[in-house]
Design goal:
About 55% of the residues lie in helices and about 10% in strands. It is mostly helical. Strands 1-2 form a two-stranded antiparallel sheet. Helix 1 crosses helix 2, helix 1 crosses helix 3 and helix 2 packs across helix 3.
Length: about 110
Amino acid sequence: MNIDQLGYFEEQVLTMVAILGEDAYGNAIAEEFANQLNKTVNLSSVHVTLYRLEDKGMVKSMMGGATAVRGGRRKRIFTISSAGLNTLRNLKDSREQLWKLVPQFKISY
């Protein structure tokens, strides 16, 4: 997987899946955006992105158990795949490499 094939929002959703572990499902990911980034995201956008990441092999999904809280409906749980984790590591490494090249500016007041 070429890292330039992963969009910014895809990267953020993939990172949220990695953070949440076995608790990663659409609504939990949207809530994590609010909690961690103070950012509101559209739940439909999260779902579309999760399915796109699954098509790319970055995440895997399975159906969780039905709960009374959800009216007996099951939720789809997502987990990061080895390819997804490697992609996140590569993205982190490339960003760190570039940040090392940014000159340190002195701020004068």
